[in-house]
Amino acid sequence: MKQLIAGAAMVLLFLSCTNDSSETVEYQTIYRIPVVVHVVHNGESVGSGANISSAQIKSQIDVLNEDFRKMTGTNGFNQNSDGADTLIEFFLATEGPNGETLTEPGIDRIDGGRAEWPKGFLRNPIETTLKPFTIWDPEKYFNIWTVNFGGFASRDLLGYAQFPNMSGLSGLNVDNGSTDTDGIVIGYKYFGSSQKGNFPNLIAPFDLGRTTTHEVGHWLGLRHIWGDGDCQYDDYCLDTPLAAEPSYGCPTNKMTCEELEMVENYMDYTDDGCMNIFTNDQTERMHTVLETSPRRKELVVFGQEPIY
Ligand SMILES: [Zn+2]
C-alpha cells in the first residue's frame, strides 16, 4: 500500500513537470464591465458632501473587483468550499457618450438641484426624472447613481437596483424595468471603503463598500439569500442554504430552516465587515445574465486570462 502511494506520487510529479515545460496555457473568460458613476450633488464643491471625491469612487470600484474576483489578501477573499471567483470585473469608463476622453474617468458630476432624493410610491423623482435625464447608453455603460437619499420613506435606504430583463432565470420577471432607468442607485454615505482612504462621509457598519456589491448582485440577477420569505422560499441557488429571514449585524452559528445560515453571503443584510461570499450557483446566474439579458450582454467586454 505504501509503495503504491509512492508510485502514484511519482507519476503526479512527472505529469506536473511535463505541464510546466510545455507551451500550452489554459485561459478563462473574464467578464469586464465599463462603469459610469453619476455623482448627484446639490452644488457642493468636489470632495464635499454628496459631491464625493474621485478617490472615494475608485475605492468602491476596487472593492467590487476584490469581492467579485475573491481576491487573495482582501476583504473579498474566503475559503468557503462554495465560495467562487465570479470572473466578473469592473472598470471606470475612459470615454464619454460622444467618444470624448473623460477628465475624470467613469465619473459624471450632476448638480441635481435638491438636497434629498426620496424613493417611494408617492414621490419618486429618481425614477421619473433623475435617471431618464442623466443615463448614459446602458448598452455601453453600467450606470451607477450616487445620491443623498431622504424624504418620504427613504432615510434608511442604502441602495437599490433594477433587475435584468428576459434572463430566463427562475425567480425573475421577464420585464423588470425600462431602458432609461437601468442601473443601481447608492446612498453616497455607503459608496466606497473607509479602509482605502479618509472618507468621513461613510457611515459604519456600511462603510466597506458592500452595499454596492449587494446591489450589483441584484443587477446581475441574484435574489436575496432568504428568498424574501420563510423556509418555503428560495433564492434559486442550491449551494446557498435556505434561510427564514434576513440577518443583521454578524451573527455566528445562526440556524433557521434546519440549516446553518450563510450570513457571509453578499446577498444577505449583514454588516459590511461580515460579508465575503458569492457562491458557484450565484456566479452561474450572473454569467447567464451577462450572456442573455438585453443591455447586459451588449455591455460586457469579454477578455481572456491565463489560468495559473
Ligand atoms: Zn437587496
TrEMBL record:
Belongs to the peptidase M43B family. Residues 1-21 form the signal peptide. Residues 135-291 form the Peptidase M43 pregnancy-associated plasma-A domain. It holds the Pfam family Peptidase_M43. Gene3D superfamilies: Collagenase (Catalytic Domain). One of its GO terms (molecular function) is metallopeptidase activity. This is Zinc metalloprotease. InterPro entries: MetalloPept_cat_dom_sf (IPR024079), Peptidase_M43 (IPR008754). It comes from the Bacteria. Keywords: Disulfide bond, Hydrolase, Metal-binding, Metalloprotease, Protease, Signal, Zinc.
